[in-house]
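Need tokens for this chain, all 401 residues.
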Amino acid sequence: MSTSDSSATEPSPTSLRGLLLLLATIAGFGAANIYYNQPLLDDFRQSFPHSASWIGAVPAVTQLGYALGMLLLAPLGDRFDRRFLILLQTAGMCVSLFIAGTAPSLAVLIAASLAIGVLATIAQQAVPFAAELAPPSARGHAVGMVMSGLLLGILLARTAAGFIAEYFGWRAVFFASIAALLGLSVVIVMRLPHSKPTSTLGYGKLLASMWHLSVEHRGLREASLTGAALFGAFSIFWSVLSLLLAGPPFHLGPQAAGLFGIVGAAGALAAPLAGKFSDRRGPRSIITFAIGLVAVSFVIFGVSGASMTGLVVGVIVLDIGVQAAQISNQSRIYALSPEARSRVNTVYMVCYFIGGSAGSAIGALAWQAFGWIGVSVAGFLCATLAAWNHLHGRPAAVSAT
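Here are the structure tokens for all 401 residues:
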């Protein structure tokens, strides 16, 4: 049975729109949990002053956990009912969030953050689920709609976390997420249909098959490294923004850092346009342009360490570039092996979030050693790596365009 025929029944257009909206919400709320901690770093430092040098580990291990979850859990979407997997991971997420919200030490918070990252991969069950439910003629639109929800969740998570922390403290952020996930779970039980497995492979063979997909498709390897480098640049900026704003000349709290998520939402809103241009001009040209935008954004950041206006402009340019590249990269990889869509997506997203985890760690180190200029240079170098890999891989990736 093909992936396109794997849903029990093909929903009507009206029903499909509602299901896609629900899947977009699942993706957004799931992915948001990875980013709630980024505008809270200064609050963590104040709560755990004796462990201040390890604060950067919180966002780093969260993203590393997401990569592990992608590797170990996301492929199960080809083997088991995705609805069941989403509900099971949501339950585990609530437990992990409770531990984070009651953490008595930074070590406990770091451990809980790792678990949160692993379980937040419910977002990556939602994206291939959309591709499964939609007819082939509407599949691109379906994936783009769910991805827009995921991107908005990533960006607005910082805004929500900053606002809640400003008025109720950082621990309330995790409890608010539990309440939101419990409410969403009720809707999932009522509205989301079951899916049928598209593979009978055992767990070990399912994981091993991802290695074979990576070896078989050079375009997948190229897209994965490009995505990892760009998301590394993205994470370098966002993981230390709250530290920049907390110091002179801004002296702003977590709410200000969170509000930058609203500015960054421009990138998520531009994602559907990037998808349309990708269909018309080919994804490679859009990715080339997007890499250029990311590089330019870090030049803007480098000269705007004391300028709120410059930071706002840089955020808009950065997020549009990263999200445009993400949509175009995913449109490429989904065409490589339609019968293994979850596993192809897993290979790409594991690399993507390893890049994000490395970016968070690099950003913290660059901030401590060289300040904001060091952060800007590190982000620019990540964009340079993406450009080299993307242009170097051009002759081998024609079939993926």
